[in-house]
Amino acid sequence: MSVESMNAAVVQKPDQLSVQKMPLPGLADNQVLIRVEYCGICDTDLAIVHGIYSRDHLPLIPGHEFSGSIAEVGGSVSGLSVGDRVTADINLGCEKCSYCRDNARLNCPECSQIGIHSHGAMARYVSAPADKVLPLPQGLDPALGALVEPLSVSVRAAKLGRIGLGQSVVFLACNFMSLLHLQVFKLCGAAPLIVVDPSERRREQAAALGADFTLPQDGATARAVMDLTNGQGADVVVECAGSIPGYELAFDLVRPRGRLLAFGLPAENELARFRPFQVGLRELSIIGSCAGQGEDVEQAITLLQYERLNLTEFTRVRYPLEKINEALAAYEEPDGPLKVLISMS
Ligand SMILES: [Zn+2]
Ligand SMILES: [Zn+2]
């Protein structure tokens, strides 16, 4: 390619994000260069911008939820061609250790995630290893393609949470990820789906996207959940906000032998209180779930291909790369859009 530099959003220091010229990403023999079309902003990006994650990797181009088309392929790449519309599994590992072999690269000692540990897609171009690059189905809106990565996270959460037919699920917090979980868990047959959030507006959004019940988060939440689950408590409670009061409340909402799906990430050193007696006596399970990887990503693409989900509304709010700081400010507004995409075209 004749282009040598590109515009990219770069976090230089915590709370210092600007669009600047950067060299084009290098292209190793086993990599492809992707011309980015859309890149989603998520809470992880906010954490990077504010210096909570990735401090050791600055300056960094963030962006790990993206779609685009292949601009160039490395010398040893086969099966992918210039012009193919693609996304990528952002989780790179050594591919040799037991975690990599078990599709759990996040725990590989060499784990590196595109846009979190290495330069990402809030730029005109991003490079990725060819074996992590996945073609998008023909005709799929590339804006939806940028949602593959977060959707793969929900696919993994459904699997690790062993979500099944007729299982009651409580989601603590209504945000983009809990609404993805809600739709994926509904596909798995979970019912009823109960969303707890202090904001009435958010509760309305949850109801519109398929929640069977919505509840405010207050002193009456546990009683209300009992009433909706035959006096037992929910089969599964998913904490989606990374809130310590949310984690502590979860133990009051889950039924004996139920599962607490720990999804929302509080700050690294925060502590929550729970009673081990209660966990042991009631045979509760606490299950963690984080990034979608490998086949989770492929399955997310299939769900989009066959239109199993209603995600279009999450592609509506778009900003050009040059307005990245306005886009972040809009996303951070308490009543702001649940998803914001950066459009590169
Ligand atoms: Zn994300
Ligand atoms: Zn590994």
Question: Could you walk me through the main structural features you see in this protein, from its secondary elements to its overall organization?
Answer:
The chain is of the alpha/beta class and about 350 residues long. The chain has eleven helices and 17 strands. The strands form four sheets. Strands 3, 4, 5, 8, 9, 16 and 17 form a seven-stranded mixed beta sheet that branches. Helix 4 (about 150-160) packs across helix 5 and helix 4 packs across helix 10 (about 295-305). It is globular, with a radius of gyration of 20 Å. The chain starts with a strand and ends with a strand. About 50% of the residues are buried. The model has no long low-confidence stretch (mean pLDDT about 95). It binds zinc ion (2 copies).
Tell me the Rg in angstroms: 20 Å
Low-pLDDT residue intervals, each spanning 5 or more residues: none
Q: Share of helix among residues?
A: 25-40%
Task: Profile the largest sheet.
Answer: 7 strands, mixed
The CA-CA distance between the termini, in Å, is: 18 Å
**Binned strand content:** 25-35%
Give the names of the bound compounds: zinc ion
Note the main attributes of this structure:
single chain; about 350 residues; seven-stranded mixed β-sheet; six-stranded parallel β-sheet; about 25% helix; globular; binds zinc ion
List the helices and strands and how they pair.
Elements: E1 5-13, E2 16-23, E3 31-41, H1 43-49, E4 66-73, E5 85-88, E6 91-92, H2 98-101, E7 112-113, E8 125-129, E9 133-135, H3 142-145, H4 148-160, E10 169-172, H5 176-187, E11 193-196, H6 200-208, E12 213-215, H7 221-228, E13 234-239, H8 244-253, E14 254-262, H9 276-281, E15 285-288, H10 295-305, E16 318-320, H11 324-332, E17 340-343
Parallel strand pairs: 10-11, 10-13, 11-12, 13-14, 14-15, 16-17
Antiparallel strand pairs: 1-2, 3-4, 3-8, 3-17, 4-5, 5-9, 6-7
Bound molecules: zinc ion (ZN) (2 copies).
Residues 93-94, 96-97, 99-100, 108, 110 line the site of one zinc ion (ZN).
